[in-house]
């Protein structure tokens, strides 16, 4: 009361002392509570985020501990609890990083290429020699990862040193010298025959001439002001848009597997699951002869680029060479499993075959000798295509990989990775630097050999792509065949769709384009041959008549 009396300016003692203080404080109190509310909500959300803290009582307990630590002068800042999802994500990220580093380390290690040497190394390392269902390439990859793991743990050098000492001791006990010790190492090349060496020289000479002609034509188109490349492409694409069904013929009693035009366009060859190949005259698709000789289904057929000889591949592990009259000229035996595709070298002197024994082979068409047995794919080899110059050959297989080989040296110069499923079709463009591949991932990939990478990916079909062909004159368009019962034409300039060839009632297994680019043949599991013609061909015929 004394404090109230001193602060009260009213000298009247009889006045009520309790009433004035509220009356005097009342105007002061409203601004005091009005200032904190807008300020208080601002710093509180900026404090340690409450959403990451445990709920209910744990949050209050943590807040109390933080307040106590602030009173004690702890400047370490708030401690956050990491959620289970965040911890799992960090562990997953760290594991992915370690796996990447492990693969990078493994890629730098030298691993034996011979399966026998791989098994021996695994045995010395105390690992299982083989696992159930494991193949050669998988076993080699497993050895690589084991060695990379030992290397990361710092035990590889010591372990390999001990193994080398043991091997040296075994060689000394056996009385072997240094030469025998060196023979244990698997060579990274296989010594070829004299016939292969001669073939490599011939291929090199011919390819140089053809490459010079191709490059000279390309320079002339580029430098000649009268050459209008865009107009040529537009004319070719306009003709491709006009492709229409010209003829349909039953090819056999069982599904058809392959088709091929002759170099002059007068004949068409087809093969079927009956094991019989047939020759048809163009453009009427009239039967000329039947090529009977395979014991099992025929898988592919190709005409020679220089004459009327025909090569067929079969599941009986053989390839055969015929003439158009149906006479058997040669048989090529050596593959250990069924054949998939066959292809002629541009010179017509050599024949390439692919097989499910994971190899492709090169044969001399005249003598029938096997010139080259080439490994390199970890799964079955399916498609094969020769470069227009004859210097290169490209193979593709069920390992989702395409490889480019130099026939002059025998080296694998490019490994084209990009498909996620088996690659079934492959074709070189006449321009010499574009390569097209198609497979079970329903896409067609265009590769630029100059840049060594994928140039464009076409989401081409709704089902797997069974075959692919470039237009053979200039490569202005390409054609893909698919199990979605259609064949499609694509522009080589911007890889846009030009025309859909629909009419088959089952899977389309093969496609080929005539040498003049005016006719396309497709065969299917519906047992029919369909011939598609361009209106440009009709215009050319009318001009010839005039």
Automatic annotation (TrEMBL):
Keyword Repeat carried by entry: yes
CDD domains hit by this protein: WD40
Gene Ontology process terms (BP): mRNA splicing, via spliceosome
GO cellular component, one term: U4/U6 x U5 tri-snRNP complex
InterPro entries registered for this protein in UniProt: PRP4-like, PRP4-like_sf, WD40/YVTN_repeat-like_dom_sf, WD40_PAC1, WD40_repeat_CS, WD40_repeat_dom_sf, WD40_rpt
Record keyword Repeat present: yes
Ranges annotated as biased composition (Acidic residues): 67-83
Gene Ontology molecular function terms on file: U4 snRNA binding; U6 snRNA binding
Keywords of the record: Repeat, WD repeat
Compositionally biased tracts (Pro residues): 19-53
Domain Pre-mRNA processing factor 4 (PRP4)-like: 113-166
WD repeat locations: 291-325, 332-373, 374-415, 416-457, 458-500, 501-542
Region (Disordered): 1-90
Protein name, per record: Transcription factor WD40-like family
Lineage: Eukaryota, Viridiplantae, Streptophyta, Embryophyta, Tracheophyta
